[in-house]
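Expect sequence, tokenised fold; for instance:
***
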Amino acid sequence: MSGQKKGKDRAEHFREYVTALNQQFVNWCTGQWERKPNLFWSSGMHDYLRHTAKIRREFQDILTDHTDANGTPIGSSPTNLMDARPAKYEPQLSLMPICHTKTIHFIRHGEGFHNIGINTPDSHLTPVGWKQAHTLAVHMASNPPCNSVQTAAGVFGLPHLPQTIAPPPDEEDGMDLGAPLPDQLLMRAQTGEPNVRAEHAALYLPPGVAFVAHELCRERLGPSHCDQRRAVSEAGAAFPGVDFSLIESDADELWSPGLVEGEGQVVKRGMKFLQWLMTRPETNIAVVTHSAFLWFTLTCFGNEYARPVRENLQRWYENAEARTLILSDAGGAAVPDVTWFKGGEAAAAGTA
């Protein structure tokens, strides 16, 4: 098949795909209007935008974000597939008070044994995964499953006790305080076991950093054992520096062998997790989590952006990949604005 014929077929398939999606969406909106005229329709909008993102990825050679002199989108016509001009993007500026934003460093866990075909419950990091985490640490709130907590420990944990909190010798009761205290340990040392666990030394809590586990940002639930988390009591013993108090049950009551979590369910808990992040007092937060959770959550955003911005936001995460995003809430969630200066009479009086 010639390149031109192949281009025409893809362009036609693209138009049919988009037409079918839009027709389905129109029918859904009509039904919602008849049944639920006084409710928000956010779930259907999320589904539509996810399908839109999928089409954009599949037909990125067809789509561009500008039009020709006649107003026809470049790339929608097969004759333009080979000679489309570089896209020209119009500015899409926006402003948001800083107190309604947070800087979020989204990180996918390092390589786990499940990533190399070993399907064990709550897989540990491989030696390569640990190396990825340590390399990322040089460059730069974790969730329940072990490989994410290990990645967080590898990135942010300290290989030795910080100088500022090293305990002095206690001469009164003779206790050896030179050994690390339990509340200073982030992760206990672990012994190696082939195809199960890599050997690693203990890691210690950095000053002023809270490690919090949250069930909402776990991986999409599926039939694989690697999607099952370990008991909180077991994880807490291995990671004494992580706060597991937000997890309600010790055993993993959400996972079962025959369950596959729906895409919409992943999106809903992703939105709940982002809302929870906005309630945190911190403004600079690292989230170490999983690829499918990240993809389903982040593809809900940016579909109106120019293609380079959208693709940078929505593309799939590699192991130990980190991207920094600004999370904002124009609906009102905020933290105290320490940068605000009152001005006016208060400034003149020296009380601003």
